[in-house]
What we know:
five-stranded antiparallel β-sheet, three-stranded antiparallel β-sheet, 4 helices, 26% helix
Amino acid sequence: MEKLQFHFKKLQLAEDEKRSIICVTRITMPSGMTYKIPHDYLKAEYNAELTKTPAFTKVKRGIKQRNQYRNVWINLTNELRNVYCDEENIQFNDEYLEEVSEEQNKSRAANNSETPL
């Protein structure tokens, strides 16, 4: 696996309705299989290796308003591979991620909403 597509979205903080932060909500493989990040790890700050990439810097500059999102393909460095991949499986810090069906993806896109953090 050489690259993964990360779905970044600016979401509202539950404890402060006026603040929003950039989150990593899903990861898509080149094959099209999509996996969701557990709610407890959505905040970009939990994805330290990912936030060090030039792509994240551009995403951070580009997402200005709540619920805006970007889907960005990022080439995997060894560090990113260790965090997000286990041979051919998608994981996050040694926890396998739940696959999202295409129907769930369409439903989420139609609602365009995520629960506050």
